[in-house]
Design goal:
Distance between the termini: 35 Å
Protein name: Glycerol-3-phosphate dehydrogenase
EC number: 1.1.5.3
Shape: elongated
CATH superfamily of the largest domain: FAD/NAD(P)-binding domain
GO molecular function, one term: glycerol-3-phosphate dehydrogenase (quinone) activity
Helix content: 25-40%
Mean pLDDT: 95
Domain FAD dependent oxidoreductase: 6-324
Structural class: alpha+beta
Number of helices: 10
Low-confidence stretches: 317-321
Keywords: FAD, Flavoprotein, Oxidoreductase
Radius of gyration: 21 Å
């Protein structure tokens, strides 16, 4: 294993996206993860490809960013996504004024919206309840994160990046205001001397930062997803109310993924997984789609949102868009390290671009970002994607039913 110009710590969508961006700009990068690829937040998400509608009224700028990045992924990501569309549905008892607020905000952001009558909504999803009072279509979709990360890994590798799962960072040496060495364990068992280090470790970013004597305050929250047997849902279903537990249903070909909850977590390696979260997610989602109340449960899993504590405190908690934050540690007297935290799976490519822009400025690389315009290598070849998932131990629970079956 040779010394990389840039060492990327974290093998989720953002970390592997950073490696792809660096490689396409001609920078020699290595991405490492303590586990397989896709083992953190990316691979344990609900898999929504955001149109921006969920955040349109609370964070118009973040919503516009989601809309733009979702359009990019629809161009470049092939079999890594499904362009299903989405419905926002208001039920009797829900605040009718919130529906209007949401619709107006979507239009202000530029999110295409089509208002539907309850009968028109039931033509699209026949098993919607009779309590539907208002509905609108938005351009949501579904992300298959294991495949998305695999496609980024294929592209990064093809352009010279090295991908090293099961290579945990054991220590980071800082001398004279710069990282000089990083000790890797696991399958790597080596020490490298990168010119620059990118911390893209998600909920674990604070722990990676501590190894370099830095402070990155993370405030992760856990959320449960429950996959049940359900054939042919069609669009993503969103409950049109202030964000709460159990307000989204994600379609898969023969399943529906129900979610989610939001509970603060002190330790990302040791947190409770409570049965009440499964129960409330099913109960609430069944108000949107009644048959899921009795549908067989196929699997359930918890994921962690890698939230940046100062940003979340400033924004007021749940219901506000989880934007991303780029922390330039030159401000903390470590000149060759950056942390990228927060964000959403939909915006991983933009997060990577912002990070690599900073890195390239520091290492003297003048190449521009091209990741929005170049299709991901292998994205239209499901068999190749699935082989890559196996090679890098990159299967997450979100799309376990998809890999090898589509």
């Amino acid at each position: 294993m040779r010394d990389p110009e840039v060492l990327v710590i974290g093998g989720g969508a953002t970390g592997v996206g950073v490696a792809r961006d660096l490689a396409l700009r001609g920078v020699r990068a290595t991405v490492v993860d303590r586990d397989g690829l896709c083992s953190g937040a990316s691979g344990r998400s609900h898999g929504l490809l955001h149109s921006g509608a969920r955040y349109a009224e609370s964070d118009p700028e973040g919503a516009a960013e989601c809309l733009a990045e979702a359009r990019v992924l629809k161009r470049i990501a092939g079999a890594c996504i499904a362009d299903t569309g989405g419905l926002f549905v208001s039920l009797s008892g829900d605040d009718a004024s919130y529906f209007e607020e949401k619709r107006t905000a979507c239009r202000s952001v530029g999110i295409p919206v089509e208002t539907l009558s309850p009968p028109e909504a039931r033509e699209i999803v026949p098993e919607l309840p009779t309590e539907v009072e208002h509905a609108m279509q938005v351009p949501d979709g579904v992300v298959y994160p294991s495949r998305l990360i695999a496609a980024n890994a294929i592209d990064a590798s093809a352009h010279g990046a090295e991908i090293r799962p099961h290579a945990p960072v054991e220590s980071i040496e800082v001398r004279n205001g710069a990282v000089t060495q990083v000790r890797l364990g696991g399958t790597a068992e080596t020490t490298v001397s990168p010119e620059f280090v990118v911390n893209a470790a998600g909920a674990w970013a604070g722990r990676v930062a501590e190894l370099a004597g830095l402070s990155v305050e993370m405030a992760p929250t856990r959320g449960v997803m429950v996959s049940v047997e359900y054939d042919g849902l069609g669009p993503v279903l969103n409950r049109c109310r202030r964000p709460d537990d159990g307000d989204i249903v994600i379609p898969h070909p023969s399943e529906a993924v129900l979610g989610t909850t939001s509970v603060p977590v002190a330790d990302p390696d040791d947190y409770e997984t409570a049965d009440w979260e499964i129960d409330v997610s099913i109960e609430e989602c069944a108000k949107l789609l009644p048959p899921v109340a009795e549908a067989p449960i196929l699997r359930s899993w918890w994921g962690l949102r890698p939230l940046y504590a100062p940003e979340e405190t400033a924004r007021g908690g749940r219901g506000i868009s989880r934007g991303f934050v780029r922390l330039d540690h030159a401000d903390d007297d470590v000149e060759n390290m950056v942390s990228i935290v927060g964000g959403k799976l939909t915006t991983y490519r933009r997060m990577a671009e912002a990070t690599v822009d900073l890195v390239c400025d520091r290492i003297g690389c003048a190449a521009a970002c091209s990741t929005a315009d170049r299709p991901l290598l292998g994205a239209d070849d499901p068999a190749r994607l699935d082989e890559t998932i196996a090679a890098f131990d990159g299967q997450g629970p979100t799309d376990a039913d998809i890999v090898g079956n589509v």
